Structures are given as structure tokens and as C-alpha cells.
Amino acid sequence: MNQDEQDKALARFEALEIRMAHQDRTIDDLNTAVRDQWERIDRLTKQIERMVDRLQRVEDSGPPDGSEPPPPHY
User: Which of 1, 9, 36, 45 has the fewest Cβ atoms within 10 Å of its own Cβ atom?
Assistant: First the structure.
């Protein structure tokens, strides 16, 4: 292998190392984004569950037949 071929091979190797470093950074960034989204989804899911429970308690504490008495000024 002559010097020119070695230089080309070294340049290709360096380009591959640079590309791999960029891909590693992209993977880390995407992993962080996915993790943050899952944390947010978990928080929102818990919030919805609390709201459903709260709504159920309000519905359960209402009149048994589902009708409301007329307002006092009616």
C-alpha cells in the first residue's frame, strides 16, 4: 500500500469516526427526548386518572336519579 492509498484510507477512517460520533450524539439526544416524553405521558396519565376519580366521586354524590332540583329562583 503506497502513501496515497494510506492517506485515502486514513481519511475514510476519520470520516467514519466523525460520522459515528455525530450518530452517537443524535442517539443520545433522541433517547433523552423519548425519556422526557414518557415521563410527561406518565404524569398526564396520572392526572387523568385523578380527574376521572374526582368526577366519579362528584357523580356519585349527586341525586340518585340523576335529576337536579330546580334552582331556588325558579
Answer: 1
- List Cβ neighbours of 62 (8 Å cut-off, separation of 6 or more): 68
Rg (CA), the chain: 31
Q: Output the CA–CA distances (angstroms, integers) from residue 59 to 48, 56, 67, 69, 73, in the order listed.
A: 16, 5, 11, 15, 24
- Residues 43 and 33: their CA atoms lie apart, in Å, by 15
Percent share of the chain, pLDDT over 70: 93
Q: Which three three-digit cell numbers place residue 40? A: 410527561
What does DSSP assign to residue 25?
Answer: H
pTM: 0.63
